[in-house]
Fold these 3 entries.
Entry 1:
Amino acid sequence: MMAWLIWGVVIILLVLILLNNIKIVPQSYVFIIERLGVYNSSWGVGPHFRVPIIDKIIKIISLKEQVEDFRPQPVITKDNVTMMIDTVVYYQVMDPKLFAYGVDRPLNAMENLTATTLRNLVGDMELDECLTSRDKINEELLAILDEATDVWGIKVNRVELKNIVPPRDIQDAMEKQMRAERERREQILRAEGEKKSAILVAEGKKEAAILNAQAERESAILSAQGKKQMQILDAEGQAEAIMKIQSATAEGIKKINASAPSAQALALESMKTFAKVADGKATKIIVPTNLQDMAGITTTFKEFMKDSNIPSAEPLNIKINPNSSSGTSQVIEKQEQLAEAEAATQVKQGLGRLEKRFGLKTGRWGNNADMGGAGGK
């Protein structure tokens, strides 16, 4: 009975030991196994059995990409500005055995390597270049770290500069510079806006002036066309009036010719016309020379002398030449001779006045003179 109890205890212990040495490796993890203190294998995903007492799991390594945020490191730029820079490294274990046996405390080694490499890179740059060259620093730092960590079984996928913190006085200077730059841009934008506004105003004035000029030109054209049309209508009206006057004159001449006026009537009209010419402002007049027909024009001379307010003279005895060009052969009565003599005297005095006024040259008459040769200009 006692033996069976002992065997039962032994079997239970063996089962517990077996169950305790069965290991299941989860996804993205690797177990590093040593047997008797020597590397034996790397367990991947799935169940595994560990030999009790002989095998030992010395490290569990994650194969997932990991992020390590390193502490800020003081670095000095080329222009002797000290600033604090902290980095973020994205890495992944590619070889678990090298990661476990390649370097002691690999994360600490990678942090120190990052700090020294960063100091070397930033030491060759000035502050402004360093602040504006993050991508360049990231690329160079990534290439150096990736190459250096290959022997540790680590793949560096990405390196980022998280913060670059310059000294406080540098920050104040940078803020002032930034403020001045913003003010400069503001002034430039304001000047450009005023410039565009002035250009638009000038263009508006230019277009307005052009439109005003076009309107004035069109108005002047229309006004000129109106004046032209008015002048044309006026000229047409004057031409029509002249035509009507000429037509009326021609009609009057026709009627005069049709009425067959006597020589005395024509002489009377001639003397009326001569009186109008003498009353004008002309300095030279034409005096007719056919004064032989005194009997027919005596009355006409009387009217002319009365209009000229010439005082009458003593009557003269005048005889009409029967051989004159008018063909007069009848002797005028005594009373008519006296009237004609008075008219002739008045004509003579009137012609004398005309001679003094206009410098005319006329024939001189005497008593019983023949009137056929009198006349001149």
Entry 2:
Amino acid sequence: MAERKPIHIEPTSETAKILRLVGDEPITVETGGVRYRIERDERATLENYDPAKALAALRRSAGALAGIDVEAFKKEIREQRSQDSKGRPA
């Protein structure tokens, strides 16, 4: 099979917002009586991965949470995780 040509979609567009709701399962969209299958391409996730840049970013972020109230932070995270969101129940 030939490599598929990517179509760029602006991250702030309505189409991008809909795609973010989809999750990991393929979806079928229909327009003008024609159906299209859309699925996440996991291969693209690591195409531009640069381990040296990732490590440098981690090192730059060291200490970013210094001085916070750790227990309050963990409580806030637990509360956020317990909230339902559209298409993704808690």
Entry 3:
Amino acid sequence: MPEAPQPAQVVASSSIDPSLVDGQSETPSPTSLDKNPDKQNIGEHGTVDPSRQQPKRILGIMPNYRAVSAGAIPPPPAPKQAFGIATQNSFDYSSFIFVGVTSLMAEGTAAHPQLGKGVPGYWSYYWRGFVDKTNGNYLVIFAFPTVLHQDTRYYAKGEGPVFKRGLYAASSVLITPSYSGRNTFNASEILGRGAAQAISTTYYPSSDRTAGAVAEKYAYAVGRDALTNTFREFWPDIATHILHRHP
């Protein structure tokens, strides 16, 4: 079994408002700190190694608001913060571009024949794709985590064997920390994506409401999240060692 995704145990004292931490997170024991390999990513002044930092955007385009740098342990997101992250992910300019590209591909391949072709068909794909993305974001990032007290942000590992890091990243769709820091089944992801697919049956053609069609879209959504987290995990390495730039 892969090591469960969990928050790293060290953070720069200057990076968190004490008022946010009080009453929201448990203080790690000295023993857990000593056993944490991510300590190697912390500089002598308590700052995260710049080469291991997760940027707010990857390549200046892809939103990366849900990623936490290796070695950092912020407090659990308050409902307002989770709502804000879901909103950023949904209405960031790149979201409109992403939906536009995927809608163009879907229209070109007639993924849903009943939606038609040409400009009217493209628009039919576009608004449905945008609603799909937005529903999923608010359910997986805000609604379910707030109710279930789960922190579904991606906590980067930042070091270790490539295979182990990849498995750790992909497994984050199944395992996530609770507000208290314990690893739990990621019900927010699994139930949230399921709820989003159930909602989508109300605005897709009847031919796309079959159990098989819904299951295929559901598997794609969860798999996409696993791949996204894997990319997040390795992006600092790619930026530093291949592109020779700051992440």
